[in-house]
Every structure is written in C-alpha cells, then in structure tokens.
Amino acid sequence: MSDAALELNAAWAIARKELLTALRYPLQLVTEVAQPFYQFLLPSLLLGATFAVGGRSIGLESLTGSDNLAGYLFLGVIVGGMVGTAFWDMAFSFKREMDVGTLEQTWLSPTRPETFVLGRAISGGLVAGAASAILVGIGLVFFGASMGPGLLLALPALLLAMASMVGIGYLVASVVLVLREPNFFVDATNFVFAMISGVAFPVLVLPIFIRPIAYLLPTTYAVDLLRVYALGTRPLLDPALEWLALAVLSAALIVVGRFVFRRTEHRLRVRGTLGQH
Amino acid sequence: MVRGLLADLSAFAAAGLKELRILRRYPTLFLGFLFWPIVLPAAYVLQARGFAGSSPAAMDAFAQRAGTSDIVGFLFLGFTAYMWLSMILWGPGTALRTEQVRGSLEALFLTPASRLVILFGPAFSQIVWALYMFGLVGLALVFLFGVPIGLAEAARALVVIAASVPALYGLGALFASIVLRFGEVSALVQTVRGVFTVFCGMTYPIIILPEWGRAVALSLPPTYLIGGLRSVLLAEADLVSLIPELAITLAIGLFLCGAAIVAFRRTERYAHRGGSLAQY
B178 vs A65, B254, B262, CA distance in Å? Predict the structure, then answer.
C-alpha cells in the first residue's frame, strides 16, 4: 500500500472511532442540530421578521437580490457548521486529548499526527453534514426556505470549502497545541471566522476595513455560491472568479496549514512540551 | 441569633470572595468578558443592517415594532441580558456541580454555615461581573455608537437591573439544585438558555410573537429585564411607568428564590438518603 493509501486508511479508522464515541452521547448529537437552531437561526429569523414589510424581506432583497430570508439563513448555517468542524472537531480535539492524558500515546503510534486532523475532519464533516441536512429540511418544511435545484450545482463548492477547512483545522490545531488553554481563542476565532464569511449576513454590510479579510476566506465564496445557485442571489464577484478563488485558497490553506502543523509539532517534540497543559 | 446571622453574612462574603479569587486565576476568562459583550451583539447589528438593506420601509417596520429606531441600542441591551443570563447559568447555576466534580462539596456541607450561603454564595461574586458587563456595554454604546445615555438614564437602568437580581439569581440557584440532582450540566444549560433566547426578545420585540409565544415570554423574568432596559435607556421611560413590570419581576424573583430553597432541600435530602452527594 502506498503512503497516501495508508494515511487515508488510518484517517478513516480515526473517523470511525470518533463517530463511535459520538454515538455514545446521543444528547450531544441532538445539540448539533438544536444549538444552531435556537442560538442562531430562530433569533435571526425573528430579527428578520421585525424588518419584514407585508411578510417580505424587502431590505434583504435590496442588498442581495433575494427576499428568501429563511433560505438565506439556513444555507449560511451549512457553512457555519463546516467552520465549527474545523475549529472544534479538528483543532480543539487535541486539547481534549491533552486533558484526558492520551495525546502522547496517540502520537507514539505509527500514524502521523496530521492524519488525526484528517480523520477528525472526516468524522466532523459527516456529523456537520448530517446536522446541516436536518436543519435545511426543517427550513424547507417549517420556514418556507424554498431552494432551487441549482443547489446541486453548488455542492462541489461545499466539498472545496470542506477541504479548505482541513487547512484551517491544521492552523488552529497548531495554535491549540501551543496555547494549551485555547478555549477562548477557539471560541472567538470560530465565531469571527463564520461571521466574516457572511454566514449570518451579506458580506457587503461588513465595515470597509474588514471586507478585504472576507475576500481572503474560502468560506465566503462557498456560502455565496451556495446562495447564488440555490436562491438566485447576486454574486459578490463573477461566479467563475469565485470558483477559482475557492479552489486556489483551499489548496493554499491545505499546503500552508499542513506545513505549519508539522513545524509546530516538531518544535513541541524538541522542547518536550507536548503533553503539558 | 444576631451572632449566627453575622456569621452567616461573613460566610456569604467569604463564598463570594472565593469565587472572585478563582475567577482571577483564569485570566483568559477576562478576555471573554471583554470580547463577547461587544462582538456578539455587534454581529447581530450587522445582520440587522443586512435585513434593513437600503429600504426605508424595512427600517420603518423595525421602528414601529420595536418602539425605537436605535438598532444598536436595541440589540446590545438584549444581548447584555443574554450574557448575564449565560454567566448565571454557567456560574452559580453550575457551582454546586463544580464543587461536586472537584470533590469539595462534602467539605462544604460539613461546615456550620447556613445552606443558603452554599446556595446563593456563588451568585454574590457574579453581581460584580454583571455590573462590569453592563458598564462596559454602556460605555461602548455611548462612546462607540453614540447612543445618548445620561446619568439619569443609567440610574434608572440600575434600578431595573437591581429589580431583576432576585429573579435571575433565584433562577440560577434553582438551576444549581436541579443540576446537582440530575448530574447533567451542558445540555441543561443549553436547553434553558435556548428557551430564553427564543422567547425573551433578545433580538426582536416580543410583539411579533404569536399570542401563545407572548404568554411564554411574559412568564420569563429576562423579558422584563430586557423590556425595562430598552424602555429606560432608549425610550426615556420613567420608573413610575415601569412599576407594574418591576413588581412582576420582583414577585417572580421571590417565587424563584423560594422554589430554589425547596429544591435544594429536596436534593440534599435525596443525596443524604441515597449517599449520592459525592457521586458524579
């Protein structure tokens, strides 16, 4: 078996282990759906309803070209879930291993440390994908979040965004390993990353000095393409350019993220601070 | 009797001081106290701008329903109440469970201090943080967003906050007893916070809820806190006009504190009989 095949094999085994653990805590799985629903979607929908005129979101339409408020928010949650996977499932899981004292044991196995990130990306992606599918279903059935068949055209954008999240997962995991008390860092950056990507509102309402950051995030293009194809919103850039930016940024993030993670891991081994927390 | 009362007050202060000392040992918590009160509502302000777009009709609709056109003030005040509630649920609301997990709950129960100290002590230190957070949000509203808040408005807001203290900390103490009995923290906090987030009008005026939703909202104390703060700070309402709401909040507070004491005694009896005090 080639190195890549072995690594994928190990990543799948790690993903299976994570999924098995997740299934042991069904209440936690319920919160994957419930939490974004009551903590983000319902308050946002109710805020949107406060601005509605004759039951239509004319303000949102003036900015995006679509008055489909529910569709706009429920599609945003899909990418929000991916971002959460990178920050909490891929990166913060190292902190959990530190806490229970199993980090050194897992890193002593012949599996490369970066494969653990990949494995958790697969399990986290599957859980987040299932949660997003349920949420979108709720949006379609109960909140009138109609979406066109064009949504299928945007599915490759989601795959590219998920790949970019592996890169982000590597970068954030590096910080988690160095900080050792990363709860606030992960929580805050996860929130800011999702918000700047336009998960909850059009990127155009961001302050002018923050907007360039949005254009550097692959998730901005993923969520925008999703809305363009499914809801017919006006794209931020030409869609061809958005696809290109998404592909290039995703590839770059994986390369840079993996490099930074390897360097950090090497430094921690040299200093002997891996298990400290 | 007086000596006992003084001893209990001293224990109460010591319990609050202990919680403050623990907080001081975790400096990253302070970053959170600085970051979230500003960034979380700011994100919803941006969302509101997205929903308003360039449509004056959408803005008018908001102003008509919310009773103010000040979106920033409206959302910041709603989220300050949300964060206060979060602090209570994660702090005093889980304090007994935290003692249980640390293994110090039995030692606490063996002290001669009143059980009320154990139940309400952790809440004491949280009042300091709540005031800090309200102060921080107030300063941000005045200096960053230009919301006109004078000393008179601030004083009226303090009265609204003070009237909500028994209800919110009673809720925290009741929650602490329930958490101790059932041993589950995260899911319970998320569920209770979820109910408040959806019904209490943190991001919207409760007038847009259906009738049954409004009835639920009006039975929850944070609704009165949020409504009261918005009235005195954004609509220049005087305290006299808020007397009915303040009276309801105080009455709910008394009820919740009483319910917390009853629930705590039951939990304690249950733990004594089953020997489950240290189990987790």
Answer: 49, 18, 11
**Quick check: B43 and A61 CB within 8 A?**
no
Interface confidence: ipTM more than 0.85: yes
Interface contact B57-A53, CB threshold 8 A: yes
Report how far residue B105's alpha carbon sits from residue B194's, in angstroms, rounded to the nearest whole number: 29
Query: How does pLDDT run across B172-200, given as a tens digit for each residue?
Result: 888 888 887 777 677 778 888 888 989 99
- Total domains in chain B come to 1
Tokens for A213? 């950051």
Hey, how many other C-beta atoms are within 10 angstroms of the C-beta on B274? 9
DSSP one-letter string for B115-142: HHHHHHHHHHHHHHHHHHHHHHHHHIII
If DSSP codes are grouped into helix, strand and coil, which group holds residue B64? helix
**Does B214 map to a domain?**
yes
In this complex, how many residue pairs, one in chain A and one in chain B, have their CB atoms less than 8 Å apart? Answer: 130
**B280 assigned to some structural domain:** no
pTM: 0.89
Cα angle value B39/A161/A174 (rounded, 5°): 65
Asked if B162 and B128 touch (Cβ cutoff 8 Å), the reply is no
Three-state secondary structure call for residue B150: coil
The answer to whether A242 touches A236, Cβ cutoff 8 Å, is yes
What is the mean pLDDT for each group of 10 consecutive residues in chain A (277 residues)?
Answer: 83 93 84 90 96 95 95 95 92 83 84 90 93 94 87 92 95 89 90 97 96 97 96 96 97 96 91 73
Least Cα distance to A172 among A198, A149, A190, A192 occurs for A190
For residue A43, give how far its alpha carbon lies from the nearest alpha carbon of chain B (Å).
6
Name the nearest CA neighbour of B108 among B234, B19, B204, B203.
B19
Of B46, B197, B230, which to mutate for an interface test with A (greatest number of A Cβ within 10 Å)?
B46
Mutation choice for B interface testing from A25, A28, A41, A51 by most B CBs within 10 A = A51
- Give the residue carrying structure tokens 């005031």: B131
Contact check, Cβ <8 Å, B32/A60: no
Using alpha carbons, list the distances in angstroms from residue A43 to A204, A214, B195: 21, 24, 11
Cross-chain CB nearest to A48 (options B29, B51, B187): B51
Would you state the structure tokens that stand for residue A90, as one six-digit string? 């891929």
Position of tokens 């004759």?
A54
Q: Domain residues for B233?
A: 2-274
B22 Cβ partners below 8 Å, 6+ apart?
none
Residue A173: both structure tokens together: 């995991």
CA angle A78, A140, A26 (to 5 degrees): 60
In a domain, B260, yes or no: yes
